[in-house]
Specification:
Keywords: Signal. This protein is mainly β. It has two helices and 16 strands. It has one domain. A hairpin with a 3-residue loop joins strand 2 and strand 3.
Length: 215
């Protein structure tokens, strides 16, 4: 029995009740994604492939689990003004898989289904580059989500969920379309799927705003 299969069996036996599927290899991709509104262009890049970045990621995940520092050489988000070409901000972030902005360009949201060495799966910035909110997603806090042993946390509708944001003078509410299908197991290299027993169609996140957070 190979080590990966043994790890999978141990995890499934002793882990929580949420489904988990095995990873054939560790996540090691370089990814660049973009999103635009009428006013701004947003780019996210991350590199989970090189040894140099692996060492930096290990230093982060094994200590303070804070990817928002200058020590982060492996992942960033950057926003540009489309009319002037000026950089609005560039910030270190966790590895993201979807980025989105409100139609008025005031708020920028990044979400992720990457689990390995990635402590946060939802981030919210204003157009000035202030980090307003961050959240980690796991199957203990969100038992209707599913996950692989190391690589993935399956919590939003893939590949791109519907995202909406409502703001008031002192708070923000974000709704993200959920994935109501479990990734259950791998048979002949292909995922099998099943409907969630208690589907949650929309995930809602709320957090307060301070006066300086508003664009």
């Amino acid at each position: 029995m190979n080590n990966l299969r043994l790890i999978c069996i141990v995890f499934l036996f002793f882990g929580n009740s949420a489904p988990a599927w095995c990873d054939s290899v560790g996540y090691a991709e370089i990814k660049k994604i973009q999103f635009e509104t009428s006013d701004i262009s947003i780019v996210h890049w991350h590199d989970w492939s090189t040894k140099k970045n692996r060492d930096a990621r290990w230093a982060m995940i094994s200590t303070d689990k804070n990817p928002f520092t200058e020590s982060n050489t492996y992942s960033y988000i950057q926003a540009f003004d489309k009319k002037t070409g000026n950089i609005l901000f560039k910030s270190p972030v966790p590895a993201l898989t979807v980025i989105w902005a409100t139609p008025d360009s005031n708020y920028i949201i990044g979400i992720s289904n990457i689990k390995v060495w990635n402590p946060y799966h939802l981030v919210v910035f204003n157009k000035k580059g202030d980090l307003l909110y961050k959240a980690a997603i796991d199957t203990k806090s969100y038992p209707d989500a599913s996950e692989s042993v190391t690589n993935w946390i399956n919590w939003y509708k893939e590949p791109v969920p519907k995202i909406t944001l409502k703001s008031t003078i002192d708070s923000i509410e974000i709704s993200i379309e959920s994935n109501n299908m479990w990734k259950q197991s791998v048979i002949n290299g292909e995922f099998t799927y099943g409907e969630r027993p208690n589907p949650v169609p929309i995930r809602i996140f709320r957090f307060p705003l301070k006066s300086g957070d508003i664009n």
